[in-house]
Amino acid sequence: MPFEGLTEKLSNAFKKLRGKGRLSEADVKEAMKEIRMALLEADVSYKVVKEFTKTVTERSIGADVLESLTPAQMIVKIVNEELTTLMGGDSVKLNISSKPPTVVMVVGLNGAGKTTNCAKLAGLMKRQSGKRPLLAACDTFRPAAIHQLEVVGGQLDIPVFQMGQGDPVEIAKAAIAHAEKHGNDLVFLDTAGRLHVDEELMDQLKVMKAAVDPDEILLVVDAMIGQDAVNAAKAFDEALDITGVMLTKLDGDARGGAALSIKAVTGKPIKFVGVGEKLDQVEVFHPDRMASRILGMGDVLSLIEKAQQNFDMKKAAELQEKMRKNRLTLTDFYEQLVQLKGMGSMRDLAGMIPGVDAKALEGASVDEKALTRTEAIILSMTPEEREDPSILNSSRKKRIAAGSGTQVVDINRLLKQFEMMQQLTRQMAGGKLAKRLGRMGKMRKGFPF
After folding, report:
1. Counting CB atoms within 10 angstroms of each CB, which of 202, 203, 233, 438 has the fewest?
2. Which of 170, 157, 162 lies closest to 122 in space, CA to CA?
3. Are strands 244-248 and 270-274 parallel, antiparallel or unpaired?
4. Segment 158-207, tens digit of pLDDT
């Protein structure tokens, strides 16, 4: 989970401030020392940390803060605002040309996930903006790059243009011409990378930029390499004047220093972040939401967006009506598990809920094997049995077990979980939701998540 250590240390610093009630200038400066150390340990650039803490301190020791009734809360608000500003302030969209196709030149070093994330971005634009993207294989330096792009493009049902190991610049120009002819309004050029920044790489990219005049030059960098990511961003920006950054593997970087430093060092916004290995795990970067998550204040908007993307609204309305009338079936039960699985790990979701300690859900995620077993059991039932599990006698259970490759004990466990879910639904319908949600922890043993 990104910023895990930073979130914990900042929370401790603010807890000390809240415990003091009225604050003095010395209290604020002591807290700023802790915040400074927390940011440095998160691998944030020293210059960025120095400027950040200076600004926060100056704002926090003002009379309007120290003399307010809730000075600690005011300081948290200031830190939140300054973190948001540090990461760019507002989310920045992809530059879309008024005359299609929009050309996006994707650049970066090898190992950052450039080829895969090129496809991820194309998939995101197709899903959310209704675009018709084309992927162009312009990386003729790495032998497997073309095949890799074709594989991920095929998985996302996005066409890939390639001309083998030819001249990358000619391939880029031919891809744009192909897009114009076939109605593709967005072209992603997957360019060559290296293991390190060198003159040869930059010269090749400069020639391509001059030849195709891209609307967007997006740099893909690996968040897990910390300050090296910031240095790479600076080098690419100086050579190519990039328009934005995509930060990959943010989910695997518990420090998050790159995300907090890149905008301040390069002046260029982080536009997208990769938050997982799956091809749909890419998000628009929202500085305000990320600042909120860093401070343990949750990210309700992103949680809602995830739900909207993964849940069928029509089915959700039908489910709500069934819950109200207490008519849940095993089919409903299975469909909800599948949709929940699509939203990601329970821990990441918890981190988006204000006041919930995501660390408490360490390792809590959807159990693929248990879900597969649940699916096999439910699909081995007749429609009648799914609608009314009470008719499942011993002989029916043996038949289902044989058909699903499981044991009767697995079926009994599933039925017990379903019964508990029905009970919980009835209780929730009667109110006191928060109190009863605590009982869900007892349901987890043997549950598919």
Report:
1. 438
2. 157
3. parallel
4. 999 999 888 899 999 999 999 999 999 999 999 988 877 788 888 889 99
Give the β-pairing of 270-274 and 282-284. Answer: antiparallel
Measured between its terminal Cα atoms, the distance across the chain in Å is: 18
106: phi then psi, degrees, rounded to nearest 5 = -100, 120
CB 88 within 8 A of CB 112: no
* Predicted model pTM: 0.66
How many Cβ atoms are within 10 Å of 191's Cβ, its own excluded?
Answer: 27
pLDDT at site 428: 55
Helix (H, G, I), strand (E, B) or coil at 100: coil
Query: Other C-beta atoms within 10 Å of 267: how many?
Result: 10
Question: The tokens 């799914």 sit on which residue?
Answer: 386
| Residue 139, SS3 per DSSP | coil
DSSP states along 364-423: ----HHHHHHHHHHHHTS-HHHHH-GGG--HHHHHHHHHHHT--HHHHHHHHHHHHHHHH
What whole-number distance in Å separates Cα of residue 281 and Cα of residue 357? 23
Cα 417 from Cα 412, distance rounded (Å): 9
Distance CA 216, CA 327 (A): 52
Q: How many other C-beta atoms can be found within 10 angstroms of the C-beta atom of residue 130?
A: 8
Residue linked to tokens 């699509």: 342
Q: Give residue 327's identity as a one-letter amino acid code.
A: R
Which strand ranges, in their side-by-side order, compose the sheet holding 186-190? 160-161, 133-137, 186-190, 102-108, 216-222, 244-248, 270-274, 282-284
- Cβ contact 184:126 at 8 Å: no
Mean pLDDT comparison of 76-85, 179-188, 291-300, highest-scoring range:
179-188
How many CA atoms lie less than 13 Å away from 306 in the CB half-sphere?
Answer: 23
C-alpha 153/C-alpha 119 separation (Å) is 6
